[in-house]
Amino acid sequence: MLKRFFLLFSISLFLFSSQVFAQEEDLIINANNLSYDKERNLMEAEGSVEVVYKDVTVRGNYILYNTETERIQAEKGFLLNYGDISIEGQSLDYEIKNKTGKASEVRFGYQGIELSGQEIELETEKFNLKNASFTTCDLEEPHYHVTAREIIFYPEYGWMVAYWGYFWLGRFPLVPMPTYIYDLRAEEKAQRNLPPFPEVGSNDEDGTYINERLAWHISRELSGTYSISYADKKGLGGGAEANYILAEDSRGNVRLYGNAKDNLWGGITHWLSFGEEIEEESPYIAFFAPPKYRRYELETTLSHRERINYQRVSYYPNLVLRSRKGWILRKEARYDAELMAGMVKEEDNVELARGGGNFVFYCDLPEIALGDMTPSVSLDSRFYSNGGKWIKTTGGVDLRKSFSENLSLGLGYLHYFSVEGQSPFNFEMYRFNATDRFTSDLFFVVGETGVGFSASYFVDTWEPEDLDYSLFFRLHCYNLVVKYRSLRREFELGFSLVGG
């Protein structure tokens, strides 16, 4: 007969002290058979056992509970549930109130990722798995998986680190990985997880290149990558970078790279975000989650000889304050604003102080049969310590039509009202032309393949400014991304893991 045991009732049943009752009052145990050894402070439950403490539930066929140490032991299989996590395994030794303990032969899923391990140490903020593996493929025989000597998983942040592992494609181990970091929320941060394969691409400056990046990790607050690369026109290169987190809205990146031709370059950038969380719109929503930001962001960069638009540029430093999706009088009338100030040096050119700002006002009009129409006007002004200035005022309209989740079309027109002066920096004038332009983009999905195309044409001559092609191959649990910018002659091949 099923017995239901409340520790409130245990005062009279087992003569517990009032102090023990105060510690145990939220605990409930259900079982087919239940007994208590008062001398050992040990409760034994057998048959369809369920132990519930607030948001934590442990189920199993045989469970021991020590009322003095508040530890649960399951030796014949268990299922541990709390929050969005369900851990299944063979044995469990667990402090149910502190949510800490250890278990063996475990497996569990979380937000599209499947993990398993011979052993696991459970802590409040992280799980440490030994002789473990993970995959984002939901097939019984996954297309790929990663094995590792150790995996540290931070469930609150959706962040995972694997040490001394291999990337397996089917049954074949392809790539050894000393350290691999996987962020379940990378797309929301407008970032990509580090691919397990080398990055391949080409452009006029470097020629064909290959870049192999590997991760390193000290803690969730301090991690990064190191890399080795080779380019036809630059020779052997490499470098390293570190990502640090001071708080969830205060983070930064430190980097140093070099190659045989360009010598060394690097910098440090810190982002301080505040305000409410907002979500950017993306035409590629069928393949990638739209990124999320805070409304305000202060970006501070101190850099030396980093490449911007194929020029070597140094910031000593540069500060940018951004505001995204603000609104005036009504929420349909929105604006994006940016203020900047800093000292800028362009190699083989000039070194000047620079300040200015950019303001874009746009209005989200009610949807019509043709789609969503968004008119806009903008002011972009920059002033330089040599007395120069570069001020541009523009107006335009964008039209976007989503025919379905798998098909969207965008059209746009941009008109220059005025252009006064010009920038003394080549990287700012890169491919600039103050001519009205017509833009278009198309994205559609056929089966598991996404195709993107975007184009920009100068209206006075109808000559193309940019023609960009993108292919997104979703192979159930990972994406292959091919990008080609034909007029700039830039090619990039990427790889990313996704949920199956």
Automatic annotation (TrEMBL):
UniProt-listed Gene3D superfamilies: Lipopolysaccharide (LPS) transport protein A like domain
Keyword entries, A-Z: Signal
Record keyword tRNA-binding present: no
Keyword Metal-binding: no
Coiled coil: none
Signal peptide, first to last residue: 1-22
GO cellular component: cell outer membrane; transporter complex
Transmembrane segments: none
Full protein name: Organic solvent tolerance-like N-terminal domain-containing protein
Annotated organism of origin: candidate division WOR-1 bacterium DG_54_3
